[in-house]
Amino acid sequence: xxxxxxxxxxxVQPGGSLRLSCAASGTIFGPNAMGWYRQAPGKSRDMVATxxxxxxxxxxxxxxxxxxxxxxxxxxxxxxxxxxxxxxxxAIYYCNLIGPVYNYWGQGTQVTVSS
Length: 115
Description:
Elements: E1 3-7, E2 10-12, E3 18-25, E4 33-39, E5 45-52, E6 57-59, E7 67-72, E8 77-82, E9 91-98, E10 103-105, E11 109-113
Parallel strand pairs: 2-11
Antiparallel strand pairs: 1-3, 3-8, 4-5, 4-9, 5-6, 7-8, 9-10, 9-11
């Protein structure tokens, strides 16, 4: 069984930065992608950014140029560097690991952007 543990959320002022981390424990096999999704109150869970083991990335249009996703395959860890944060980035951020026959989610970490 794989577990995803997120950290790094919190309260930040508009224009500030945060770095989220997600560490995966357990046996992970096959090609896979790790990513970040977010869900604001009353809204659906949407993709923020994803990255494959080979380093191919994909970003939501709303975060391009502000957020950067990266991963350390040796540590099974994915990061999300968030800069120039806006109030509309406020949400619970979830880590995801998806492979050939599995799809895991973290418990979520709250990010609040407010003055």
